Amino acid sequence: MMLRKIIYLGIFITLLGCGSGDLNISTTVELKNGSIKGVQEGDLKKYLGIPYAEPPVGDLRWALTKPAKNWKGMRSAETNSKICFQPKQIADFYDRVPDLNNMSEDCLTLNVWTRAKDTHEKLPVMVWFHGGALVWGSGSEYPGNELTKHGVILVTVNYRLGPFGFFSHPELSMKNGSSGNQGFSDQIQSLKWVKENIQYFGGDPNNVTIFGESAGSWSVNVLQASPLAKGLFHKAIGQSGARLIPLTHLDKSTTYSKSAEELGLEWSKVMTGTKNPSMEVLKKIPPLTIIRNLENDPLYATQFDSLTVIDGNIIPEDISKIFQKGSQADVPVLIGSTADEATPLDPKMLSPQLEYMSYKRLTHLAIADILPEVDSSIYELYPVDTEQIAKKSWVDFTTDVMFTAQMQKWGDLMSSVDSPAYLYLWNWHPSINGSKEYRAFHAAEVPYIFGNFDVFNIDLSERDRKFSQVMMEIWTSFAKNGIPSIATTEWPEFESNYQKYVLLDENIEVKQGLRAEKVTLINEAYDRVRDDF
Q1: If you write DSSP's letter for every residue of 22-53 in order, what string do you get?
Q2: Minimal CA–CA distance to 117: which of 42, 12, 195?
């Protein structure tokens, strides 16, 4: 009897050992669609250019995203895929000078960075959607070497951009029931891929955090609102961007925007250089021709806000309304912005034709264009008495109307669900080429979140390295348990009545009432022009 127990125990241990061996993660991984081979550097394994969707080429240009097809044999995941087609960046400060030869419509891939040794580790997963106004950027710009040292798996995603990813047209709507938001459709499919496959990299499909900066943060806000993304993620981090402004409607004009279909018809003419091209013609135009024609139109690169469309499908109604009803994904959010977002976005630098226009005039135009119904008292908060004062007011107004107010509104609207919101203001001033003139500029936090300082030519100091470690710890602690961890104090939940937030600076501290008077005036003005149908 005892001998039989010993034999059974030996068999059990042997089987257990075999199972553990099978769970080991190597550079070769078997996915739902087929096998891939990645690269290992020490304990870091990276798998690059993995297709998560069928290439949107030919008749699938502008179609909603379809899952990737299976492949046979071993697929290399050792190098990045080509990036999605995009025009030249209009802001030199943010220009990565992407190579046109490295662009393709066949770009719907993602990258996985993991230090898990076997599949049962179930590490938290962080899925990054890059910024770039929904027009520029790629997932391959954001390596996971450092962030993964904090006990998470990083996934970075390519999605269709600009004229390929956010294009509405009556013919498309007639065929599919709606059109536009193709890039958001890509993002949703990437999250479905993560849910189905991340376990093979040692990740937990039930602990996924989506995060992004600028247009990536717009994306996070949209995904939290979209019924099609529910259940695909469990926490959300939004860095400098939300789509809580009045949005463009698919087939209805408003006081602030033509319909998305009208805009699509206008862009069709620009893309082809012809009048009233059919969808059949549009689908056959070489992608480079589309890019070149749009680059020659000075208005295209300024139409960012019309790219997110109330389409009745991915975005069924105004996002602020979705949040007011409590219909968004009920997940914890960590949200915020930088203190001086607009310092690199000087309109005279972006548009040479404005070179001789005064900052007084530019500030008046910006306020009248963005907030036509705002109270005149706004000029007490953003004065234009002199050119120097007006230039500062332009920066401050642009920072607050595009970022500060949006993030606080996101926090306010989280009161409709049970999950908490945590608000921050990032106020670290990187030194670039010996100067801190841009202060806490738009996207300044991104190198610190990833521990990658190649971008922006930051003059890296030991202080920067230490601050980066703190930022990565905050972000990954939130991904692990839904609470941003700071050593010095407890991070309070954001509540409309108290408006507490955390200042991320040399001295991290809890503050209250972030630009409250300005934020209230801005958000009330936005709500006055919001059209609901």
Answers
A1: HHB--SEEE-SS-EEE-EEETTEEEEEEEE-B
A2: 42
- Catalytic residue selected from 442, 445, 468, 477: 442
The number of beta carbons lying within 10 Å of the beta carbon of residue 267 is 24
Mean pLDDT of 427-440: 96
CB of 70 closer than 8 Å to CB of 57: no
SS3 label, residue 389:
helix
Query: Comparing C-alpha atoms, which of 229, 216, 134 is closest to residue 181?
Result: 134
Whether residue 8 is predicted with pLDDT greater than 70 in this model: the reply is: no
What pLDDT shows up at residue 6?
A: 37
Q: Supply the pTM of this predicted model.
A: 0.94
CB 23 within 8 A of CB 117: no
What confidence tens digit (pLDDT) does each residue in 103-148 have? 999 999 999 999 999 999 999 999 999 999 999 999 999 999 999 9
Q: Of 141, 146, 213, 341, which residue is the catalytic one? A: 341
Q: Which of 214, 219, 226, 240 is catalytic?
A: 214
d(CA 81, CA 358): 45
pLDDT of residue 97: 67
The verdict on whether 214 is a catalytic residue reads yes
Q: Sheet containing 28-30: which strands, arranged edge to edge?
A: 28-30, 35-37, 74-76
- Name the burial class of residue 348, with classes exposed (0-12), middle (13-18) and buried (19+) by CB atoms within 10 angstroms of its CB: middle
pLDDT digits (tens, 9 = 90+) for 334-392: 999 999 999 999 887 777 777 789 999 999 999 999 999 999 999 999 999 999 999 99
CB contact set of 325 (below 8 Å; sequence gap of 6+): 416
* CA contacts within 13 A on the Cβ side of 275: 0
